[in-house]
Automatic annotation (TrEMBL):
Keyword terms of this UniProt record: Disulfide bond, Hydrolase, Protease, Secreted, Serine protease, Signal, Zymogen
Chain segments annotated as transmembrane: none
Gene Ontology CC, one term: extracellular region
Molecular function (Gene Ontology), one example: serine-type endopeptidase activity
Entry keyword annotation includes Disulfide bond: yes
Name the record gives this protein: Peptidase S1 domain-containing protein
Species this protein is from: Drosophila mojavensis (Fruit fly)
Family assignment from sequence similarity: Belongs to the peptidase S1 family.
Gene: Dmoj\GI24442
Amino acid sequence: MLFPLLLVNLLVAGVRLEEQLIYPPQFTRERIVGGEDAPEGMAPYQISLQGAASGQHSCGGAIIEERWILTAAHCIHGKTPEAFRVLAGTQDLKKNVSRYYYVDRILEHCDYEPRKYRNDIALLHLNESIVFDNSTQPVQLSHEPLMPGDWLLLTGWGTLSLGGEVPAKLQRLEVEYVPFEECRLAHGNSSHVDIGHVCTYNDKGRGACHGDSGGPLVHNGKLVALVNWGMPCARGKPDASASIAYYHDFIRTHLSLHEAAAAAGTEELAAWRSKSHCH
Ligand SMILES: *[C@@H]1O[C@H](CO)[C@@H](O)[C@H](O)[C@H]1NC(C)=O
Ligand SMILES: *[C@@H]1O[C@H](CO)[C@@H](O)[C@H](O)[C@H]1NC(C)=O
Ligand SMILES: *[C@@H]1O[C@H](CO)[C@@H](O)[C@H](O)[C@H]1NC(C)=O
Ligand SMILES: *[C@@H]1O[C@H](CO)[C@@H](O)[C@H](O)[C@H]1NC(C)=O
């Protein structure tokens, strides 16, 4: 709770933005602010990544196939699959209509750089297939380049105000795409903004601060990005997310390697499971 306030104090003290204020959303309690309840069925691909033991919501993510979830690398970094459970099929954390799935393999991007927030993307493989229905569906990946003036749909569970309560209901917010050059400029030419990011912006003072880390940004019904990092709320700086188009090869390579191993038999599948995916 103190952390966001601390950051505001740093800003007032004039500490250099680039050094001090860029941080991943996971380090703050503040997530979607100024959004509204998502209408039922709006984001059937949305999951809540939770601590298996605590049951606490920690990050967002998106269903892309029966057994595959995409999220941010900083959501899973340094943890084992057993640490997590995945809640799918609900937009209400308190409603008992949904179900949990369990992770048996984490594939973090090999070049994820925690301090530079680069390549902040990960795949989670589930030990059971997700049962699809009206409220549980995969989302298609977008390969289309975004254009200035495009608006994206951001969804996530997050506090509604600084240090406030986590809402039960999934929040939605429209955010505008910010081209790379403009985004980097807005962040003082920081190299923390790179071409693997999709930047988005909400009106200054409107209160949109961060989406849930790992949470989906969707354009025309297709997944375009996963929330990576942002600046303190309503300061007028774009937030940065991992671009799905940019990481297309990372995603496709691992899905096909898994598919090939599964088709080859249980031994190959076991080998896939135990093998490091970075070489
Ligand atoms: C949800 O279901 C579980 C087990 O079926 C039960 O223990 C729990 O109390 C229920 N929660 C709510 C909010 O109804
Ligand atoms: C998946 O993992 C969970 C948690 O470890 C376990 O309870 C469940 O039985 C597993 N399901 C399958 C199909 O192995
Ligand atoms: C799913 O949605 C379709 C179309 O909106 C509707 O006709 C159907 O009754 C729904 N099924 C369930 C189980 O809610
Ligand atoms: C960022 O780079 C642009 C173009 O190279 C330059 O015009 C601008 O002054 C730079 N801004 C900062 C804050 O360094």
